[in-house]
Design brief:
eight-stranded mixed beta sheet; 10 strands
Length: 766
């Protein structure tokens, strides 16, 4: 049967369901998004509110805002019949078996015969969800486990059941890879599938080792992040990001389901995790978990939890000697191999003991969770943004060396380790047999095609199913063999982009240096002018203060000597003279302030600092009349002080007036300096803009109907990453967008490649 995807139905509009709907709509395919009806006049109030979160989410869930027009909203009572038109129906409701089984029974009643149905559960057995449905339904039913956020995390786990038709599995894998741009792994229907099964074990091993061996939260995160090829969230920050309640529930479910797992007891949550969950300290979503967000006077800080006392303490940012010694080794495999040699280093011991347990557990799980160890490596890399999967890490250490270290520490049964070592060696032979399997699959396909013309319809169908199984196996091995060729082509394209980028950077660097030099000259002129003004003003203020102090001292002596012989008439005349002098001083002061204000406004309007300084100096010269008035006021003050002791208070008051005038002059200079600083920042911003334009240049994207410029405009509008946050790395800006759209999809051509570019450049953490 030839499957086509013209419309997709998604049931459940929460974080995952809405994200999946946004992902598919972004590829140009229509989506029907349903959720429970609301107890309101508007029955779709619930689904509208949930969808609005997706439209406004950060990072953006939609590839473009216009993609939202492809999503039709409804509720599971009034609009359930709309699923009759859908070619793929995805269930994303509450993680409970009974509600999922009831929903599958309703879907079975409306789905068209060719429609594929999948469940996005992360832990419930897929076969149990569809167990009560008919044979035709179960043939088209499987699990599809997306990772959050669906647009950015690359991993998609596909879980067929024993009843799922092979062509259905093959079609969903092809669609996920080529249309949705995902990294698809085929999992067996076991608890936690691949990523959550091993990921939960990794989390427990790292955390329990820290608690048992007195490692702090900060120490563990410092050495389990980028040092060994993991994201910066490392261990405890990743737990806060995922949610401690999610981790607690995952541990509980794994412990209940893995009855025959020899490491089952390791999935028992620690006392400190139980305490945090009980206190509702669930990580980033509550502001406290293994780290607590604390707003200080200077900035926001993250206080780590003391695993012994249970109290949050100020960050210490511990420095690891191991990190400094091996961080410059670019190859992650070689770096890990070097770490394993340092058996006398405290941080290296932690990494060695925990990593060997993780590798041994992956080896024990491999036969039960998938058919290829490559699937395990891909699931861990795509699901957790790690540089190496467990078996790739083991291969870097050396298969025999890893087995010897495990036996020495009695980490796993010898038989399990030997089986894992043999599996790792078999992986190295896959490239050699890939071509043989490809040829054999082609011959089988031709034979099946000939037989389908000669025998009856039922025999042809059976032969096609056998051919499809073998073809799927051959394609899987062929895909692994072709990875090396694709990598070489991708590296060549990256080198070409690097050459173009370097040329653009050189041009931008020259322009930036010229702009910076101009800014430096302008700043030097401004600083020289300010320095001259400051020196002149300082000298003037010193002279003025000295004169005032001398006048005060003379006046005080004269007042004490003449106070007894002063008459009331002389006091009155002195008062009148004082008021007249004060009036003259005020008029002069107001005139000076007005002239200074006019000079400042003219300087700002003309945006010319040198002219502003000239106008300011001119205003000082024109204030001679005000200075003369000030001298008259000073003489009046001197006369008043000679009159009586009561005049001494007025002398102090007038001295205060002089101080206020000087302060206002200082404020004026500060405002002019602020204007100069604004001009300097504008020049520096222009230089940064030139550098940005050069760094973001890119050739035209193949397979798209528009130029690279419009592509970058659309990308910058939709992506959570801004150019200022991009690292100077050709890997983070690579735009290798090659490959055809999958057969059977009606969306835009090339959307898989754009999604793949998002995975390579964004890499948000789950």
């Amino acid at each position: 049967m030839n499957y086509k995807i013209n419309k997709v139905g998604v049931i459940g509009a929460g974080t995952m369901g809405g994200g999946i709907a946004a992902l598919i709509a972004g590829t140009g395919v229509s989506v029907v998004l349903l959720d429970v009806p609301a107890d309101d006049v508007d029955r779709n109030k619930t689904v509208k509110a949930l969808w609005e979160r997706q439209r406004k989410s950060s990072p953006a869930a939609l590839f473009t805002p216009e993609a939202a027009n492809l999503v039709t909203l409804g509720n599971t009572e009034d609009d359930f019949d709309k699923l009759r038109e859908c070619d793929w129906i995805i269930e994303v409701i509450i993680e409970q078996l009974e509600p999922k089984q009831q929903l599958m029974a309703r879907i079975e009643g409306v789905r068209k015969p060719s429609a594929i149905v999948s469940s996005n559960t992360s832990g419930i057995p897929i076969s149990s969800i569809g167990a009560k449905c008919g044979d035709a339904f179960r043939k088209h039913f499987l699990g599809t486990h997306f990772f959050n956020p669906p647009r950015y995390l690359k991993l998609l786990e596909v879980i067929p059941t024993a009843d799922t038709a092979l062509e259905v599995t093959a079609f969903i894998k092809d669609s996920g890879t080529n249309h949705l741009g995902k990294g698809v792994v085929i999992c067996k229907d076991t608890p936690g599938f691949i990523a959550n099964r091993i990921g939960a074990f990794v989390n427990q091993v790292r955390m329990l080792a820290a608690i048992e061996n007195d490692y702090s939260v900060e120490e563990v995160d410092a050495i389990t992040g980028v040092l060994i090829g993991n994201p910066k969230t490392a261990t405890f920050r990743l737990a806060d990001l995922v949610g401690l309640d999610v981790i607690w529930n995952l541990n509980r479910n794994q412990h209940a389901a893995l009855l025959n797992d020899e490491s089952r007891e390791l999935f028992t949550s620690s006392e400190i995790l139980n305490k945090l969950v009980a206190q509702k300290a669930l990580g980033n979503k509550t502001g406290a978990g293994f780290y607590k967000t604390v707003q200080t006077a200077a900035s926001r800080e993250f206080f780590p939890l003391n695993l012994k006392t249970g109290q949050y303490e100020p960050p210490t940012k511990p420095r690891s000697a191991l990190y400094g010694e091996v961080k410059d080794i670019e190859d992650i495999g070689q770096r890990i191999k070097e770490i394993f040699k340092r058996t006398d280093d405290r941080d290296a011991i932690y990494l060695i003991e925990t990593t060997l347990k993780i590798l041994a557990y992956a080896a024990r799980c491999a036969p039960g969770i998938c058919d290829s160890i490559a699937e395990i490596d891909n699931a861990m890399k795509w699901g957790f943004n790690s540089a190496l999967g467990p078996f790739e890490m083991w291969d870097a250490l050396g298969v025999r060396e890893g087995v010897a270290m495990m036996r020495e520490r009695e980490i796993a049964r010898n038989r399990a380790v030997d089986v894992a070592g043999a599996a790792a060696r078999e992986l190295t032979n896959a490239a050699r047999i890939a071509e043989e399997m490809k040829t054999r699959a082609a011959e089988i396909a031709r034979d099946a095609e000939i037989r389908s013309r000669e025998i009856e319809k039922q025999e042809a169908i059976e032969a096609a199913e056998i051919s499809s199984r073998r073809l799927v196996d051959s394609q899987r091995i062929e895909k692994e063999a072709e990875t090396t060729v694709e990598k070489i082509a991708r590296d060549q394209k990256i080198r070409n982009l690097e050459i173009a980028r370097n040329k653009a950077l050189d041009t931008a660097q020259i322009a930036a240096e010229e702009a910076v030099e101009a800014a430096r000259v302008a700043k030097a002129k401004m600083v020289d002018a300010e320095r001259i003004l400051a020196e002149q003003d300082l000298d003037a203020r010193k002279l003025e203060r000295r004169k005032v102090l001398e006048q005060l001292e003379i006046a005080r002596v004269q007042v004490l000597r003449e106070a007894e012989i002063a008459s009331q008439e002389e006091i009155e005349r002195a008062r009148i003279a004082s008021e007249r002098g004060l009036d003259d001083a005020r008029i002069g002061h107001q005139t000076e302030r007005r002239k200074l204000e006019i000079a400042r406004e003219r300087a700002i309007d003309e945006a010319n600092m040198e002219k502003a300084i000239a106008l300011y100096q001119k205003s000082l010269e024109e204030s001679a009349a005000a200075v003369e008035a000030e001298n008259a006021r000073a003489r009046a003050v001197e006369a008043a002080e000679r009159a009586t002791t009561a005049g001494e208070a007025e002398i102090a008051s007038r001295a205060k007036v002089v101080g206020v005038t000087a302060a206002e002059l200082d404020a004026e200079r500060t405002r002019i300096a602020a204007e100069a600083e604004k001009i300097r920042k504008a020049v520096e911003a222009e230089a940064q803009r030139l550098i940005y334009e050069a760094e973001t240049c890119s050739p035209t994207v193949p397979g798209w109907g528009f130029s690279s410029a419009s592509f970058w405009t659309a990308w910058k509008a939709s992506s959570p990453l801004r150019p200022s946050r991009w690292k100077r790395s050709t890997r983070s800006r690579s735009c290798s967008l090659a490959g055809p759209a999958p057969r059977g999809w009606t969306g835009r051509t090339g959307t898989a490649e754009v999604a793949a570019a998002a995975h390579r450049s964004a890499r948000p953490t789950r």
